[in-house]
Write a structure and sequence with these properties.
single chain, about 300 residues, alpha+beta, 6-stranded mixed beta sheet, 4-stranded antiparallel beta sheet, 12 strands, about 45% helix, globular
């Protein structure tokens, strides 16, 4: 393990710590693995696991391969964690991004989830500009949605300000039909029109928000890792996405959809400047998400026999 030098100030959670905690939180026999069990699997001490998860140290270089072989992480994930750790120690800014967790929620928003959600919606509103009311990030509509789908969204901060976010609620079958017909409108989203991933099965995921503030493109690896970790946690419960859908509202959004390997279904029936995109469940194993995660490759490969 590479310990932080005495006196070093680590105030930001490392990507490695976030990913390791997320993995342990969904990998145990009953939904959460203990630090002792994880230490045994990686062949390190329990004290080392505690330091990893507190962002005090990073796994020793000659043991990195165990993250791939024993935890199923991709080599890209390990590389991203290593680069983030190096940036964090050097203080060059990239390592100052962090996913909103309970500690940050308590510090920045006085423990108020509602305040954090409203701040995230304000970022989306500022980045997207004027949108039709059908797609505007209206707090009255989206705050209850976020509160009801904890674990299906994430926000990233830098210097205690939200700079990026994603969300992925699950639609009812009739709303999936509207989406595929290119007539779905976000103002129809409500808590009583969501599917809850309580039981194993297949669900249609709709992404109403993937926001990165201008000038903060460096947060992308962390945002991607948090999204993949969420899909992994669902997959370990045998909750599989039949597809992921989204609607692009800009040229940049459309390019991102292409980069993710999504299929263009056509322009929205009411808003011809908006594009409707989908990534089918059978394509996830070979997608960028699958390439980042052995868990997703295995689970989605088996679910769709690919």
């Amino acid at each position: 393990m590479m310990a932080v030098e005495k006196g070093a100030d680590v105030t930001t959670t490392s990507l490695f710590a976030q990913k390791l905690r997320a993995w342990r939180g969904s990998a145990g026999q009953h939904g959460r693995m203990t630090q002792e069990a994880l230490a045994e699997r990686l062949g390190v001490s329990v004290d080392a696991i505690g330091k990893y998860e507190r962002s005090v140290s990073f796994i020793r270089g000659d043991l990195e391969h165990r993250l791939v072989e024993r935890l199923g992480w991709s080599r890209d994930d390990v590389l991203a964690c290593r680069e983030d750790w190096s940036a964090l120690r050097q203080g060059d800014g990239r390592g100052q991004y962090a996913i909103l967790d309970q500690t940050a929620l308590d510090r920045v928003f006085d423990g108020s989830l509602r305040a954090a959600i409203k701040a995230g919606l304000a970022v989306a509103d500022a980045e997207f500009g004027d949108l039709p009311a059908d797609f505007a990030p209206d707090p009255d509509r989206f705050v209850p949605l976020y509160e009801a789908t904890t674990g299906q969204w994430a926000m990233a901060l830098k210097h205690d300000e939200i700079v990026a976010q994603w969300s992925l609620p699950f639609l009812l079958p009739e709303d999936e039909i509207r989406f595929r017909n290119r007539t779905f409108l976000e103002d129809t989203l409500s808590v009583d029109r969501l599917r809850r991933p309580i039981f194993p099965g297949q669900y249609f995921g709709y992404c109403p928000a993937l926001v990165v503030r201008s000038g903060h493109e460096g947060v992308a690896p962390l945002l991607m890792s948090s999204f993949v970790a969420s899909l992994e946690a669902l997959a370990r419960r045998d909750v599989i996405l039949s597809a992921i859908g989204t609607i692009s509202i800009s040229a940049g959004g459309a390019q991102l959809c292409r980069d993710l390997g999504m299929t263009f279904l056509g322009n929205h029936a009411r808003f011809e400047d908006f594009g409707v995109w989908v990534l089918e469940g059978g394509e996830i194993a070979a997608s960028l998400f699958g390439r980042r995660s052995a868990v997703l490759r295995r689970r989605y490969g088996a679910a769709f026999e690919v």
